[in-house]
Hints:
By secondary structure, the chain is α+β, with helices and mostly antiparallel strands.
Amino acid sequence: MMYPNLLAPLLIALALALAVLLFVAVRQPVSRRLAFRQLARRRTEAALVIGGSVLGTAIIIGALVVGDTLNFSVRQEAYRTLGPVDERVVAPPGPAGRTVTERLASLTGDPDVDGVLSAQATQASAVSRPGGRTVAEPRVLAWQMDFDDAARFGAPNGSSGLAGPNPEPGEVVINAALAQSLRAGAGDPVTLYLFGTPQTYRVERVVPEQGLAGVGLGGRLNRDAFLAPGTLDAAARAAGTEPRSVTFVSNRGGVERGETLTPRVTEDIREALGPLAGQAAVDTPKHTVLRDARQAGDSLGALFLMIGSFSIIAGALLLVNIFVMLGEERKTQMGMVRAIGMKRSRLVGSFTLEGAVYALLSALPGVAIGVAVGWGVAVVAAEIFSGWSVGGSSIRIAFAVTPTSILNGVAMGLLIAFAAILATSVRISRFNIIAAIRDLPSTPGRRPRRRLLVVCSVLSILFALAAVPAIARSQADATYLMPALALAFATPALMRVMPRHAATTLVAGAVLAWTLLAPVLRPRIFDTPSMSVYVIQGALAAFSAVVLVSDNQKALLRPVRRLLERPSESGLAARLAVAYPLAKRFRTGATLVMYTLIVFVLVLLTEISGILRAGVDGVVTDATAGYSLRLDYNPQVAGDRLVAELRNGPSAARISAVTPLLNAAGRATDPGHRSTQPLDVAAVGVPDGAITGITFRERLPGLADDAAVWHALATDPRYVVLDGFFGSTGGPAGDYYDPGDTLTVTDPRTGRSEQKVIAGVLDNGMVFYPGTGASSTTYPVVMGERSIRELYGDQAQNASALVSTRPGTSADDLAAQVQGEQLRSSLVATPIASEIRHQFDSSTAFFRLMQGFLALGLGVGITGLGVVMVRAVRERRRTIGILRALGFRARTVQRSFLWESAFVASEGIVLGSLLGVLTTWLMYRNSAAFEGLEGGFPLEWTSICALAAATFAASLLATVGPARRAAAIRPARAVRVAD
C-alpha cells in the first residue's frame, strides 16, 4: 500500500473539512439554498466543474495504484517463489556443513519456528533436445532433499510447494521455469552437468515454481532440478568434492506473517550455530525481498505522483478558473445579495458549499478512472520490466490496488479541491458592491493596506533569513522555495515605491531567474532521492514565467501590431481574439500555467530520453573499456581450468585477453549515509595490473590519473572503488559520496569487518555487477586481490571473468559459442554492449510510459481551455449580439474565438517548450545524474514539434464547439435576454 502513514492524517483533515461544510450548511440556510439552487439551474457548469475534479482525483489515484502494483508484484514474487521459507543458512561443503545441519535441527523445538528442512545443492547446467534441436540452460540449481520432509515443511495445513513421491534413481523433478527454458516436459530426457560431469535423467514431473519448488540462493528466478536422495552425494564423491549444505527455516505465522519474526529467529539461528556461525551464511531472503518491494513500490509510486503532480496542479487551476468565471458571471447577483445585507462570509460559504458538492460528486468517477489509469500503466510497465532482468530474472507485474491508496487518493483529491474552491471563493467575494450591481469592471491600482504591508514585509525578511542556510547547505526544496517566497512577499513593499506592473515584473523575473540559475550555483540540490524538488522547480518556473508574460502581453504583441490593426475582417477577428485574454489576465494566466506546466514536463522527459539515446555509445565505451563479455561460472567446477581453456581452447582465436576476477558476497555500510541498514555487496578482486582501461569520474586527490587509482588498489588494501549507483534505492542518481569517504565492508560468514577508503568513483561499473544469482540491490565493491583475500580468505573465489575479443569478432556469437563449450561449468556469457543497449531501450520505453501518464495533464489543460471558451460564450452573449447587430458576420465571430484559443495555446506551448529545453540543459550541465552521458545535448526538434502540433490541434478542436455556438447567437435575442 502507498503511504499508509498518511492515511490517518488525511482522513482526519477530510473529516474536519466535511464537518465544517456540514456546519455551514446547517447554520447558514440562505447560503445552502443559494448553493443548491445554482446546482439545479447550472447543469452544464456542474458537469464542467465535476470533470475538473474527476481528473485531479484520477491522477492521484492512478499514481498510487502504480505503486501498489509494483509493491504487490514483488511481494507476490517473494511469497510465490519462497513460500514458507523465511531464513536460509548456506554452509560450506565438508564436515563443517554437516555439523551446521545437525546444530540447526535443534530449532524444531523453537516456538517461533514452524519447520526446519535440510538439503544439498550445487550449481549445474542442463541440456535437452526437443525435436532434435539442442537447447542448453547454464543457470540451474540441482537439489537433493526428501520430498516427505519437504511436504511437512512450514505451517500445518499449508503448502510448501513441493510434495509427492521422491523421484526414483535416474529421474528428476524440474520446476516450470527450467521446463520452459529447456522446452521439456514429463517423460523427456535431460542431461544435467553435475560437478562438471554429464548425466542423463528422465523428467518424472514438472512442478510450479512455488515455495520450495522455486527457491534459490539469491536469484529472483530459479531454475530448479530435484534429484533422488543420494544422487547428488554420489555425483560429488565421483568428482572428489561435496555438495553445499542448505538449511531452510520457516517462521510461525504462515507465508505472509512469518516474516515479522525474522530478526528474532535469525538470532536463534546464530545462537544454535555457536562457534560455527562464522562459517555459515545466514540469509533472510523473504525479509530482504519484501524490504526491496516496499522501497521499489514507494519509489515508483513517488515518481508517478511527481509526474502527476503537475497534472494535479493543472486540475486545481481548472477549478479556480471555473469559479472565477462563475464569480464574474454572477457579479451583479452577488452585489445585490450583499446590498440587502448578506455578509461576505455567507457569500464565501455559499460558493464553497456549491464547489464542495461538485467535488464530492466527482469522487466516485475519479476513483474509477484512476484505477483504470493505474491498470493501463501496469499493462505497459509489465512489458518494460520484462526487459530489466538480473540473471535472467525479471519482475512479473500483477495489477493490484489497496483500500489505503484509494482512501488516500480520494482524501487528497477532495482536500485539494476544497482548498482551491475556498481560496477562489474568498477572492471573488471581495468586490465593490455598487460596481458589482452596475456591472462595472474592477479597478486595480489601490496600494496595499498597511496591515498587509507589515505582515508581508516581516514574512519576506524571515524567508530571506531562512534562505541563507538553506542555500549554503544545498537543501533541495528550501533552496528553491525560500528565496522565491521572500521575493513574493516583498511585492507589497515594492508596490509602495514603484508601479504595480514594474513590481510584479521585477519579482516574477527574479523568481524565474533564480529557478533557472539555482542548479548552476548549487548543483548538489539534485543529490536527493526525493521527487518534490522537481515539482517545486517546475511549478516555480511555470508560474513565474506566466506572470512575467501576462504582465507584459502588450509589449510581446508589439511586433504584430500592424497585423492586428489591419482594416479588414481578419484584422478585426485578430483584435477580438487578443482583447479578452489581455483584459482577463487572471483567467488567461491560469490557462497558460496549465499548458506551460504540462508541456514543460513533456518536453523535459523528451529531452532526457534524447540525452540517454545520444549518450548510449559513450556509456558503452566507458562500461566495456575494451572488454566484450562478462563470464559468470561455477568456481567449484571450473577452478583454474576454465581460464586456461579459454586462452588455449577452440575459442582462443577470437579472444585477445581473459581477466579473471575474485568474487565474494558481503555487506557494507552506506558511504552516503542514506541508510543505517547494511547493504548487500558483491566484493570483486581485480588482478594486479590487469585492468587499466576502465575510467573514473572522480579520483582521490594525489592520484593523477586512472592508472594511478588501479595501482593504489593493487598496492594498498585500504582502497576500494565504487560506481555512482552504490546504495541507490530509486529516484534520480546523485552525488552522495566522494573519493576519500569511508565505508565498512563485512564478511557475513566470519563477522570480520574492515574500513575501506574510496579511491575513485567509476564512470561506469556495469562490468562488475553480478551476472547471475544476485539481488537487484547488490552493489559491487571493487578492490585489489590482496585486499579481498585478507578480508574473505578462501571464500574469495574466481567465479567471473572479463573477456576482450579480437577485431571483427561478434560478441553475441562468441557468447553463444563459449557457453556451449563451457556448459559443464555452468558458464553464463553476457555481451556487455548488448546488455547496456537493451537496458537503455527499456529506460527510453519507461520515459514514454511517463509521458503517456502525463498526457492526462495535457488533457486537463486542453479541457481547461475548452471550459474557458464555453464560459466565454455565455459571458459575452450580449456583447456578441451587439457586434452582430452592428454588422459583424458570424464567420468573424467564429474566427475570433478560434484565434483566441490558438493565441493562448501557442503561448503556453512556446513557454513550456522553452522552459523544458532550458531546464533540461541546465540539469544536464550541472546534475550528477547525467554524469557519464557524454553524447552531448540533443535538441529533439522532431518530437517537440510533433508534441506542439498535436497540442495545438487538440486545443483548436476543443474550441470548435464553443466557436460555432458563438457564431450561431441571434443578435435580437442576445441583446434583449441577459441569460
